[in-house]
Design brief:
Elements lengths: L4 H11 L5 E6 L2 E6 L2 E6 L3 E5 L14 E6 L2 E10 L6 H14 L10
Antiparallel strand pairs: 1-2, 2-3, 3-4, 4-6, 5-6
């Protein structure tokens, strides 16, 4: 299993009302692109959430997340949320809504 298919389905259900959503397999997981921008990703045991980098301090009371790090570099605006806390719908909705709220302000990748 490349990614948690059950979690991916739950995320997809929360995005189905949106016009421009694409699913792409990349980074050993499934990435949900919203309006041409990376928004949410699902891996084997976590969910990547792209959010406002200034909102991290507001998440201190939330369990099960950490800022993503690639190599030794923190990824500004990306957090990883453990699947352990995503079992409850209200928790999953919280993180999906954070990603969707930031999406209009997120920069799109440069087209190659």
């Amino acid at each position: 299993m490349k990614y948690n298919e059950t979690l991916a389905l739950r995320v997809a259900e929360r995005l189905m009302h949106l016009q421009d959503v694409q699913e792409k397999e990349m980074f050993n997981g499934l990435i949900f692109m919203v309006n041409g921008k990376m928004c949410i990703g699902v891996s084997k045991n976590s969910m990547m959430v792209r959010l406002d980098p200034n909102s991290l301090e507001n998440l201190s009371d939330k369990d099960g997340w950490q800022q993503m790090v690639i190599g030794n570099r923190p990824m500004k605006g990306y957090v990883s949320v453990s699947e352990d806390v995503l079992g409850r719908n209200d928790e999953l909705d919280f993180w999906v809504n954070l990603a969707l709220a930031f999406n209009p302000f997120a920069k799109a990748s440069k087209k190659k």
